[in-house]
Amino acid sequence: MLKNIVFDFGNVVMNYDPDKILNHYDLSPADHELLKKTIFQSKEWLEIDRGNLSEDEATKIFIKKLPKRLHDQARTIMQTWPSKVVFYQDVFDWMKELKADGYHIYALSNTGMRFANYLMKSKYGENFDGGVFSAAEKLMKPDARIYEKLLTRYHLKAGESLFIDDLKENTAAAEDLGMYGFTFWIDKLSELKDYVSKIGKEQ
């Protein structure tokens, strides 16, 4: 019986698009591109997700790479970018329906803790019964160990759990552990709803 539905964050519950995030700041086209490359496309950004750098440590590295005129802007972006993403309200509305139907909802995401804490402390966080995040665990999907941490921490059975992610390699890793997997993009929401309904009826 399907009991647990596990959501990734980026491009599943919100639109992770550095260009759209940076559009919220007053930047010239050249500065927009420079900040995108220096911050969001950097190796340090991945190290934040891996838990090897804090956001503040990464900010200091970014500042060293940028001209002085962009130092304050870089600090502001690093502090405030989580509030600039667009959340998918339709997904969160569906989560409420799922919880009303008795499902448990969890998060499993490759993310730094600044964003994870922002989301989980926001109005959207109340939809989740728990979460496991790469920066805190120092493990990244599709490493099987991060999925196993979620299952163990919340006493979940793999065969009763569905994992939703925007990357096929991540849903495939969940399936290898016996979980259901669904590779998602926002235009697949109706397909995902049908899938949950189908596998729920099969058991």
UniProtKB/TrEMBL annotation:
It holds the Pfam family Hydrolase. The keyword Hydrolase applies. GO terms for molecular function: hydrolase activity. It comes from Lactobacillus intestinalis DSM 6629. The lineage of its organism: Bacteria, Bacillati, Bacillota, Bacilli, Lactobacillales. InterPro entries: HAD-like_sf, HAD-SF_hydro_IA, HAD_sf, PGP-like_dom2. Gene3D superfamilies: HAD superfamily/HAD-like (3.40.50.1000), Putative phosphatase, domain 2 (1.10.150.240). PANTHER family: ALPHA-D-GLUCOSE 1-PHOSPHATE PHOSPHATASE, FLAVIN MONONUCLEOTIDE HYDROLASE 1, CHLOROPLATIC. This is HAD superfamily hydrolase. Keywords: Hydrolase. It comes from the Bacteria.
